[in-house]
Amino acid sequence: MPRISCLRIGVAVASCIASMAGAQSVDEVLRRSFTGQMGDGTLGSTARNLEGVLEESPGDNNALAALGVVQFLQSGELILQQTYTYGGFNLPVQASMMVGVGGMGQNIAFNPEPRPINHAQFRASFEDWIAAVARAEATLARVGDEEVKVRIPIGLARLDLNADGTADEREQLWRLFRALQTRFEPMQADADAFEVAFDRGDVAWLRGYCHLCMAVGEFFLAHDSREAFERAGHVFYAKNETPYGFLKGERKVADYATGVDVTDIIALVHLLNFECVEPGRMEVARGHLLETFRLANEMWRWYDAETDDDREWIPNPTQVEGAIPEARITQEMHDTWLRALGEGEQLLRGERLLRFWRGDGERGVNVRRFFAEPRRFDLVLWVQGSAAAPYLEEGEFTSDNLWRDLEEAFNRGTFRYMWWMN
Known about the structure:
By secondary structure, this protein is mainly α. It contains 18 helices and eight strands. The strands form three sheets. It has a three-stranded antiparallel β-sheet with strand order 3-4-7. Strands 5-6-8 form a three-stranded antiparallel β-sheet, with no helix packed on it. A two-stranded antiparallel ribbon has the order 1-2. Strand 5 and strand 6 form a beta hairpin. Helix 10 packs antiparallel against helix 13. It is globular. 34% of the residues are buried.
């Protein structure tokens, strides 16, 4: 009898705990997970907490959206962990980004025992990254057409940078943001208060970003990067396996006290000349880019329909309460960007040509054929123009003044807005 009573009490306590967890909003689960009040504060623990919410409510759009965001952050964490594992942050180029006032701290970024990496492992890291991004996109694709609103304290997210299975306050995302740029200098109090009211338009935005990332990964894997890895990979990895080990020696041609030989950088640019070894991936990359454009238009349909004004990640022209202070989208920006999206999609479909930057301007580059009929990719020859020769045609061009219109609309900051607006 006592054993039965104990069993009943245990079941009752377990049910009580489960009901309390289920009663928490997704907002609460995210904040408590990011700060280590639920679980250990890692992204993996946060994802498991959200998966627990979905087990109770499989159709919870807020939980799906939040999980997709966390999984996308995990894909970025994966890159950082791989860089750390192979000693990338030991080198001057990367270490300079990770150290400084409010930065991650060299004690986290520096790996005292970096592992060797060969070209096959290097390519495999891209495969793993694409798979991680695809997982996030698949989760976000499950979000229905109903409204979404979940507050994401993004600055409090912690990245297990050194892959030791833990994530403390030194590894918070806001510290990485501060280390990578100089325009904004957030502090802990700013991170505590910074939230994004992630909505249905933002779901489409992040899905588009996922497809853009996968397009970049597929484009890279379509080409053979072995020679660049072996001759210049030591710029990025402390122990890349190479037949040119002498390049890692102390004697350099010209490093100007930076620790990086300038000739290695020149060689790296020269070696951005890759044979296309998996042409099928080029069409896959084009498909991802087309999906990026489709989702960019979808996100603006959602944004334009919004009537609230609440910590918007990307505000429409009538909204002023952006998550990023003073970040506004004017009607001119909105309209010019949508026009650029339309013409970009036409380029990928081969319905318009990109006017050639050399010659008499009477022919243009068929971008669709660049993906459908891939050849050796040589960055320098593309800039020079001769690599475009196989894809030159006569036909209808994109607007000659489109870039000028974008620069005017975005006050000469088109590239900065481009990374934000997708």
